[in-house]
User: Fold these one by one.
Assistant:
Number 1:
Amino acid sequence: MFMKYNTSLLKPVRNLKELFSIQTLEQFIYSDGQENKGAKLNSCFEIIWILKGSGTVSIDLMIHEIDPNRIYFIKPGQAYRLHPTTNMEGYIISFAKSFLDIDEQNSNLTNYNSLFKMFSNLTTLIVNADMTIEFTEIIEKMNKEFLNGRLFRNEILKRYLKIFIIYLTRQFEDNFEFVPRSRNEKLVQDFFSLVEKKYLAQKMVSEYAGDLAVTPNYLNEIVKKITGKSAGYHIRQRVVMEAKRQVIYSGSCMKEIAYYLGFCDLSHFSKFFKNTTGMNFTDFKKERIVISISSSVAV
């Protein structure tokens, strides 16, 4: 079982391997001759392309069966585990958003709206058979260039990565039809984007309503109309999801997690967690530890 945890609260990346990396799944999972079980932290987007093999991928506590020729999208801040049950073939690409922007602040090539739309809307995507050859060619060139360390490597890797992203977005746009959004749908999307950016500091609907220039009642009404749940519900769920990630993947204690999530009062966090999840923090942590130990033994 390989465990990996992404978080955005890290120092800025500096060298190439922190900005961009590509490796085979065999290298990724079985480094140093044994299955890699240590937790790792980064702030990158990750694209996992599994060509062959079986097992499961756990992403934000949801378990997905692994299928051949499938791509998995991991956003910065997401937690995931890769559980191989047979040898796997494929690649994993990690990149910081800033890698695409190097020396090109004024270039339209860095405006990858479709890329971030993919990561926002998708967890996984099956590669079309007619695109497999193109995907394979570009990713093999990317891997070769990453390993050779020759002159202008960064520039060539950026271009290969952009081509790969273009291939992905073409298939994404072909497979998913997007209808024009209404004003209310745009408001809800903007709300979720803000929650993702500010949930550590902002817990009140009124704060997000102020950012969006609407009243709290109106924001709650529109979010509930579109999603079936109030704005406050979604804010609480995002905070609790991060608390659960920290419990499972970081090994932090309740005090550390409460502070990280912006709670100054430990009893307030404890009450918030129980009211939102229906389970107190200590019981949840004990339960997840047992599940994690059982999974490790099974692998």
Number 2:
Amino acid sequence: MERRPTMQKLSVIDTHAHLDMKDFATDYDAVVARAIDAGVSKILTVGTDVKSSAKAIELSQKHPQIFAAVGIHPHDAANIQKTDINRIAEMVKSPKVVALGEMGLDFYRNYSPREAQLQVLKWQLELAAEVSLPVVIHDRQAASDVQKILAEWVKLIHPQCPGVIHCFSGDKQTAGRYLDMGFYLAFGGYISYPNSRAPEVIKTVPQDRLLVETDCPFLPPQAYRGKRNEPTYIILTVVTLGGILGKSAEAVANQTTENAERVFKF
């Protein structure tokens, strides 16, 4: 029988999940119940297009612990028109929407033309400035372009809390540039992978700028690699983060919860 780690019960916030995806269609309620029982106090479920953003809001309205982010992922930018951004703007009016995203650039997969990715990102950043919501940024092999755009954008908004760099996997220099702009850095289960360079980067990040996330159903921690990820496993990421920082899991859970509440104003 395959052995799984016993997880501590900690109060922690999963700042990035995709609970609307079909991976959770058959046992969504059980997944949420497991997370709450494990001590996950809040989950931010994140849209990737108009349809999934609407679904994120729907799910957030069913559970007090769930909140929503709405936006267009760079993979889905190819067919987006300004009218789609207007629909996202309408969704922002929901009281459970606390952020815009997942938005950004992905020059690794290039599922959408770069020009479309850039335009859709700029549209969403303009909206975020108008409605004063933090952004959830996707950056994959596009750091130079993302940073150039964000450096201009942060001049237009209140600089204390512009948003989060989701699933951060860059080097220390890239981390430093995002931190200088005021962004928080979010880390997931991949920090436990044997070949991860994240631990060395994490040690350089101020602890009041760290967030934890699952990005479920993707990127489960090492103990569940090859399986579906889910919010409950955020506990293992907190434990791993504590080991990297030389802190107790409880201290990390408390700090990242405080940070998440500061960013998203839950």
Number 3:
Amino acid sequence: MKKKSIMGPEAKGKTKGFKTEPLEELYRQTPGHGSKENKDPEDIGEDLESLSLDQKQLLLYAEELRKTYAKEREKARGQRKALKELKETYESTLLALASALDAREHETHLHSQRVMEYTLEMARKAGIKGKALVNIGRGSLLHDIGKIGLPDNILLKPHGPTVREWKKIKNHPRIGYGILKEIKFLEGASEIVRTHSERFDGKGYPQGLKGKAIPIGSRLFAVADSFDAMTSDRPYRKATDYEAAREEIKRCSGTQFDPWAVEIFLSIPKKRWEEIRKRTQVKQRKIVAQKST
């Protein structure tokens, strides 16, 4: 049996200018449809019977499409909600982990979160977007996760480490990289963790990478990390003011820091750095409040 085409007469040999009609229009063309009188089911049945086979097929397909679209839309809505909740869980877990690391080193409270925000600000200024930006943020937040492998008698030592202890400390980027590289959604972040202690002049550790061999994220991080270290109180010294920290970063351009990263840092006004610092403090207070409820 030959299958009848569902195309209307307008489409046969003449597709130019052909327009599909909304379902409402098809119903309006049905005798009696749209009148103000109340119609019983038998009347409606008669109206539908008056439609051509092509129109009935179109209505059937349109109804199936409507149902399928409604189901897929609901499914997508559920998936978006699940993905959003999963992402929020990931981020909360990472923040909690970073907070625990900072709390272990009593003098570095909120250091990891501030450095993450500072680095992200510079990365956005540099035009970095999407997944690369996410990886830079996560890598900056978890940069010191390798210190989990360091004993307290080394990490919390009030005086400078011995040569042997310093060798262990310099290995923490490798330890951190080893922890994160096996976690799929942190794979990109692990590269920042592995290279965050490298220097532009090649005198960093653990690999002694130089110049552009160091990932962009780590070159930006190096400036942000030093800026936060200088402008935060430590048990053995008071915080340096913004102007002094700015001059020190300029002085180390081309040696410790990539000149390109320094220029990005200098292009961001002091007010913006202060806003980020305050915002980080507010975020931390919210996290603490959520945990206590």
